[in-house]
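Below is our example:
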Amino acid sequence: MRRLMSIAVTVGVAAGALATGPLMTADAAVAGDPFAITNGLFVNPTSPSARWVAANPTHPDTASIRANIATAPMARWFTGTSDAQIGSAVAAYTGTAVDAGNKLPVLVAYNLPGRDACGEESAGGAADAEAYMQWISTFAAAIGNRPAIVIIEPDSLGDFECMSAAQIAERNTLLNFAGRMFAEKAPNTWAYLDAANPKWVTPTVIAQRLKAAGVSRVHGFAVNVSNYIDTAWATDYSRMIQDRLGSTTPYVIDTSRNGNGYGDGWCNPAGRRLGARATGNPAALQLWIKNPGNSDGTCGIAPTTPAGTFDPALAKHLITGA
């Protein structure tokens, strides 16, 4: 059992001293709205698909992957092992988005202790609660006043059936803490708690979990992250969650791989297709949160490709729907 930590733990004061780049100059009418103070979504030139395209200029699928995936706006995922220094990595990434014409970056924080408790393909995360608090505080401080969208901890509220009561209590403490860090340290960031998908958790249950995890501290919730639920179904699910929350809490849908709807399971199922590209419309927000072509794990039609690894064969399947 992981060591329980109080939310009162003192966390990295030095994190607040990280360079945060130029301050946003939004007036009072738009302060805190990252869409109002930017010029469209950021296209990451070093996304997994973009790196593959650059490294394989003569591959027969390169042109198609470049046109259909590598040039699309999508999230960058930050984990405890993706970057040695989380503060400098987040600051550099959000700064690059500003330098690219004041674009809006989408980031994913994915480092909770006991991460992916049920699926286990992406198991890992911070060593303990104290390490996570330090990490997420540094993450938020590194964004600072720059505009951003942050998806907080995919899978975090769907995994409860694989966790003990003590682990669930710790997780709620950490998610509340994460929400508070973005509210305090990243005033131009819209943060979203993950809310699973309708094939996993009912709207009533996920609404209860969102409340306990501190959804009132953040901008909204995210559905269908790394899954294949079609947009209409995901929208209905989101609206049912809103009803049970008793509010019009905003939501975002991951459309990266939902073009053919739900397939046979959640782990690299056959016959899936790219969904609608990110809209950048805050009134009906749809984003590519999962990076298309990245494996869900050693399963499905990519039985030898580890979770999070770009596979051009997977990318081709998503482009063609085959």
